[in-house]
């Protein structure tokens, strides 16, 4: 409660109260924050219906009403599949279904910290295939960027490690990368923990070298969260401030099966609408717990449903549909076109530089290999 301004102050004797003039514009957000905080953490507060109907159209009208000012997006691997990055669990096409070539004891081992320390080769082979910089952000990524530009985005909580949110234009303060990121890397030794940047790690991976610390020769691991590691501290500190203030939660491209990320859907107030854009319904409340009044899972279909909307489609199609209802579709499509053109142009420049560098090395090698003329 450190950011809540006192409404009065006590005199030194604590007997006389000196009343301070109330600034209503400052008071209302603080009261809303307290109401949402108690509602989400203690289960208090009324279940006010905010949407006029539980459809994408109802969500769009709510956003356009001006009452929606703090949108939180929760996103998973499904927002990046149209960029060519596989998700984890789709049968046949998901990442876990195509790891046989790495001879793992079980698919999840590739992200198990103890296994990684003993056998880092499979992870870095996979990292070369999926490395950031080889893919373009999707329509969904740029829709989130538009929410930011329009002053509506409170924060984006991402399970993804592909850094495409950053490529699309979100900055560090806009993002909570719940499962870490390739953006930085650290030595795994507790006594060292030297930091390395994205370019350093990229050079190692694409040279097929196992990254070792320059200082102590221990393994260097990208700052993604493996099974057996703690989530970033910032995840826990930010969620305590963000979710009580949220007035619309948009969940996209995640199965909501991994905790503690999945539990975030229950941290908004009871009145906060929640929109799921996904290929199937996810995050639904356990029926038994729901009957007992516990749990914050989604309720799309029961007679008591009043705030949760499921839009079943790809994330890109869902974002385009919502943008269309908001009158933003043309703007979104133009943004995607311009940003992809910039990325293509940058890629051409980098490849040209690499090509010239390779040619120069080849010429130097050829020249040194030529026999010298006899004197």
From TrEMBL:
<dbReference type="InterPro" id="IPR003000">
    <property type="entry name" value="Sirtuin"/>
</dbReference>
<feature type="binding site">
    <location>
        <begin position="278"/>
        <end position="280"/>
    </location>
    <ligand>
        <name>NAD(+)</name>
    </ligand>
</feature>
<dbReference type="GO" id="GO:0051239">
    <property type="term" value="P:regulation of multicellular organismal process"/>
</dbReference>
<dbReference type="GO" id="GO:0017136">
    <property type="term" value="F:histone deacetylase activity, NAD-dependent"/>
</dbReference>
<feature type="domain" description="Deacetylase sirtuin-type">
    <location>
        <begin position="49"/>
        <end position="329"/>
    </location>
</feature>
<dbReference type="InterPro" id="IPR017328">
    <property type="entry name" value="Sirtuin_class_I"/>
</dbReference>
<feature type="binding site">
    <location>
        <begin position="254"/>
        <end position="255"/>
    </location>
    <ligand>
        <name>NAD(+)</name>
    </ligand>
</feature>
<keyword id="KW-0539">Nucleus</keyword>
<dbReference type="GO" id="GO:0050793">
    <property type="term" value="P:regulation of developmental process"/>
</dbReference>
<comment type="similarity">
    <text>Belongs to the sirtuin family. Class I subfamily.</text>
</comment>
<dbReference type="GO" id="GO:0070403">
    <property type="term" value="F:NAD+ binding"/>
</dbReference>
<feature type="binding site">
    <location>
        <position position="315"/>
    </location>
    <ligand>
        <name>NAD(+)</name>
    </ligand>
</feature>
<feature type="compositionally biased region" description="Basic and acidic residues">
    <location>
        <begin position="339"/>
        <end position="354"/>
    </location>
</feature>
<dbReference type="InterPro" id="IPR026590">
    <property type="entry name" value="Ssirtuin_cat_dom"/>
</dbReference>
<feature type="region of interest" description="Disordered">
    <location>
        <begin position="339"/>
        <end position="375"/>
    </location>
</feature>
<dbReference type="InterPro" id="IPR029035">
    <property type="entry name" value="DHS-like_NAD/FAD-binding_dom"/>
</dbReference>
<comment type="function">
    <text>NAD-dependent protein deacetylase.</text>
</comment>
<dbReference type="InterPro" id="IPR026591">
    <property type="entry name" value="Sirtuin_cat_small_dom_sf"/>
</dbReference>
<keyword id="KW-0808">Transferase</keyword>
<feature type="binding site">
    <location>
        <position position="213"/>
    </location>
    <ligand>
        <name>Zn(2+)</name>
    </ligand>
</feature>
<feature type="binding site">
    <location>
        <position position="216"/>
    </location>
    <ligand>
        <name>Zn(2+)</name>
    </ligand>
</feature>
<dbReference type="GO" id="GO:0005634">
    <property type="term" value="C:nucleus"/>
</dbReference>
<feature type="binding site">
    <location>
        <begin position="77"/>
        <end position="81"/>
    </location>
    <ligand>
        <name>NAD(+)</name>
    </ligand>
</feature>
<feature type="compositionally biased region" description="Low complexity">
    <location>
        <begin position="355"/>
        <end position="369"/>
    </location>
</feature>
<keyword id="KW-0520">NAD</keyword>
<dbReference type="InterPro" id="IPR050134">
    <property type="entry name" value="NAD-dep_sirtuin_deacylases"/>
</dbReference>
<feature type="binding site">
    <location>
        <begin position="87"/>
        <end position="89"/>
    </location>
    <ligand>
        <name>NAD(+)</name>
    </ligand>
</feature>
<feature type="binding site">
    <location>
        <position position="192"/>
    </location>
    <ligand>
        <name>Zn(2+)</name>
    </ligand>
</feature>
<keyword id="KW-0862">Zinc</keyword>
<dbReference type="Pfam" id="PF02146">
    <property type="entry name" value="SIR2"/>
</dbReference>
<dbReference type="GO" id="GO:0008270">
    <property type="term" value="F:zinc ion binding"/>
</dbReference>
<keyword id="KW-0479">Metal-binding</keyword>
<feature type="binding site">
    <location>
        <position position="187"/>
    </location>
    <ligand>
        <name>Zn(2+)</name>
    </ligand>
</feature>
<protein>
    <recommendedName>
        <fullName>NAD-dependent protein deacetylase</fullName>
        <ecNumber>2.3.1.286</ecNumber>
    </recommendedName>
</protein>
<feature type="active site" description="Proton acceptor">
    <location>
        <position position="179"/>
    </location>
</feature>
<feature type="binding site">
    <location>
        <begin position="159"/>
        <end position="162"/>
    </location>
    <ligand>
        <name>NAD(+)</name>
    </ligand>
</feature>
């Amino acid at each position: 409660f450190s950011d809540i301004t006192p409404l009065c102050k006590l005199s030194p004797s604590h007997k006389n109260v000196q009343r301070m003039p109330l600034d209503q514009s400052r008071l209302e957000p603080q009261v809303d924050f307290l109401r949402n905080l108690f509602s989400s953490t203690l289960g208090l507060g009324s279940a006010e219906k905010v949407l006029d109907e539980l459809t994408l159209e109802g969500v769009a009208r709510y956003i356009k009403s001006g009452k929606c000012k703090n949108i939180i997006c929760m996103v998973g691997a499904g927002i990046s599949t149209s960029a060519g990055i596989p998700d984890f669990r789709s049968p046949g096409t998901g990442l876990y279904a195509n790891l046989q070539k790495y001879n793992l004891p079980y698919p999840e081992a590739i992200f198990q910290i103890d296994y990684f320390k003993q056998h880092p080769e499979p992870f870095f082979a996979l990292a070369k295939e999926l490395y950031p910089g080889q893919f373009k952000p999707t329509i969904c990524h740029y829709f989130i960027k538009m929410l930011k530009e329009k002053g509506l985005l409170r924060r984006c909580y991402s399970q993804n490690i592909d850094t495409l949110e950053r490529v699309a234009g979100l900055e560090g303060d806009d993002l909570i990368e719940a499962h870490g990121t390739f953006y930085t890397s650290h030595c795994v030794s507790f006594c060292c923990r030297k930091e390395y940047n994205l370019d350093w790690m990229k050079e190692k991976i694409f040279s097929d070298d196992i990254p070792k610390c320059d200082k102590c020769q221990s393994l260097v691991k990208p700052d993604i969260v493996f099974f057996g590691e703690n989530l970033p501290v910032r995840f826990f500190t930010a969620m305590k401030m963000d979710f009580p203030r949220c007035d619309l939660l948009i969940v996209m491209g995640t199965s909501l099966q991994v905790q503690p990320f999945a539990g975030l859907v229950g941290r908004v107030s009871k009145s906060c609408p929640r929109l799921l854009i996904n290929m199937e319904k996810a995050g639904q409340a356990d029926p038994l717990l729901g009957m007992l009044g516990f749990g914050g899972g989604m309720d799309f279909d029961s007679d008591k449903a009043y705030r949760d909307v499921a839009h079943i489609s790809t994330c890109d199609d869902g974002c385009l549909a919502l943008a269309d209802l908001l009158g933003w579709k043309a703007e979104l499509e133009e943004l995607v076109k311009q940003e992809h053109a910039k990325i293509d142009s940058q890629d051409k420049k980098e490849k040209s530089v690499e090509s010239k560098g390779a040619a120069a090395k080849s010429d130097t090698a050829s020249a040194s290999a030529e026999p010298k003329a006899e004197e």
